Amino acid sequence: MSRLQAEHLYKVFGRRPDEAVTRLEGGTDRDELRADGTTAAVIDASFTVEPGQIFVVMGLSGSGKSTLLRMLNGLLEPTAGRVLFDGEDLTGLSPRDLRTVRSSKISMVFQHFALFPHRSVLENAGYGLEVQGVPRAERDERAAQALEMVGLGGWENSWPDELSGGMQQRVGLARALATDADLLLMDESFSALDPLIRRDMQDQLLELQKRLKKTIVFITHDLNEAMRLGDSIAVMRDGRIVQLGTAEDILVTPANDYVASFTQDVDRSRVLTAGAIMADPETAYGTRTDSGKEIRNAKDVLAAAPATVPAATPIIELFTPCSTSGTAVAVTDDEGELIGVVPRARLLAVLGEPMTPAAPPAVPAQPAPAAERSAAPAGKAVASA
């Protein structure tokens, strides 16, 4: 079962919102509604998030991503559509039941830290547990453990204004982790940080995710951040999800010119993997090694390859072997079986312009959760919003 599912979500602000949804379903443009004093913030958004997955929603300011996030935990009520959490319809819960779900199963990490200046670091980290009614001794213990996880052990008795911006954000993350919530919602949580600190926080999140296997919805406007963090990425524009897929899907086959404009400056060598660009092994049959020996089968490919790599290997690691040999790099599965090859020409070709489909592709199947996939090296796909 999916951990989180959004079904045809709409959020309309202004007069006669239900009528506006009907008009949108009939093809009315968002700008036409705005001319009538109605704003369609989110339009027909549907997706699923699997357990242990980092799902990134990216888009420019005003694209609707933060509004979408607030519908996921009931801070905003959808004008139409449903949000299912572990199969339960959150949009049908009473206010009291919804507060119970938010306090125990869903945690949120905000952009601007949202720490209480009059509370110590330990007290801030334990605030969610205090709301739940957890006894003082237990919440202090759990808050201290969460602070240790985010690298703030020893800072428990400090005050928020004694910490750097990055450290304050770690307190916010520790507060979310302390409740042991099943779902973390992160609303541009690293965007207020300096670039180096932001990178450190991304590293911290990925490291924690390897251990904790949380389900995370992460909002960002930074494509590189989205591609670095996201197992699956939704790109939003004008309230709609215009493309949904992996970082590789979005980079190699952007759905339209808008998405392509986002990806044009991305370092493809650190996002794309050998598995994403590999050709069928048979394409190497009939070629010859540098010494002139003909390659006739999979065994020959493996023997002649200048390197043998798993599918998750970033293509930046293929440059050296491809530059030293005219023979294709071999790509293998977890059992060491040959599943593809990366010839030098193919490696160079994918560094060019993205492939633009003749028509927008269908929304691809979402990838397996991170917990079920073999861990990629530091160059794991990342995105931004």
Main beta-sheet strand count, sense and barrel state: 6 strands, mixed
Structural class: alpha/beta
Detail the poorly predicted runs.
356-385
Question: Within the largest sheet, what's the order of strands?
Answer: 6-7-8-3-9-10
The CATH homology group name of one domain: P-loop containing nucleotide triphosphate hydrolases
Classify the beta-strand content into a percent band: 15-25%
What would you report as the Rg, rounded to the nearest angstrom? Answer: 23 Å
The CATH architecture assignment of one domain turns out to be: 3-Layer(aba) Sandwich
> What is the number of strand segments?
13
Nearest-integer average pLDDT? 87
CATH class of one domain: Alpha Beta
Overall form: globular
Approximate helicity band? 25-40%
CATH topology of one domain: Rossmann fold
Order of helices and strands: EHHEEHEEHEHHHHEHEHEEHHHHHEHEEH
Distance between the termini: 27 Å
How many alpha or pi helices?
Answer: 17
